[in-house]
Amino acid sequence: MIHTKRRSRKLGWRFVVLAVVVLFLLTAVVRNVWVDVYYIPSASMEPLLLPGDRVLVSRTDYSTTPVKRGDVVVFDGTGSFTPYDSGNGPLLDAAIGVGQWLGFVPNNNIYVKRVLGVAGDTVKCCSAAGELEVNGVPIAENYLYPGDKPSEFAFDVTVPQGTLWLMGDHRNVSLDSRSLLGSPGGGLISTDKVIGRPWATVWPLGRIHALVRDAVPAK
Fold first, then answer.
1. Which residues belong to any copy of the Peptidase S26 domain (predicted)?
2. pTM to 2 decimals?
3. Whether residue 10 lies in the annotated active site
4. Is the peptide bond before 47 cis (omega within 30 degrees of 0)?
């Protein structure tokens, strides 16, 4: 009887380990193909997204439809918004990677911004009235952080094919395309770098809500 109990315990632990491995693999597939979760580390997208928010990001929204002006997108800024990094060593990189995957540690290469210009657009700031213009039309930016101007400095760019012009909603604190005007690429981000569209805030509990996809309206 004792031998049978020990065997049962071993089989039970093996089943638990197998279930955990299967759950982990299924979660990894879902997050790499359909829906992922990202940690918001900064105030650059306030008031829409707050530091510490965790957002669900759809990886499939742009598989059939293009990125639209006004979309909030999550993208990989490696080589553009952030320089290439040789890493911190295999062990520390692995630990950081696990923390990022679990949503506890921000990924310094991943950004979330609003698309203000798509291929062919001319984005300019600011007009005589102090407004952002897209293709010569003033834009009603109702999403801006209270008290922020559309931009503290002037710019006038035309967006080439395959790229996007991106800006944060909290313009005074946002590192975005404006900050890289003098860099290679001129602050424009390749559409291939877009990971997906955030469609819901899932943490903290009091912040759970859907994120509506809105176009940028002309005045």
1. 16-203
2. 0.77
3. no
4. yes
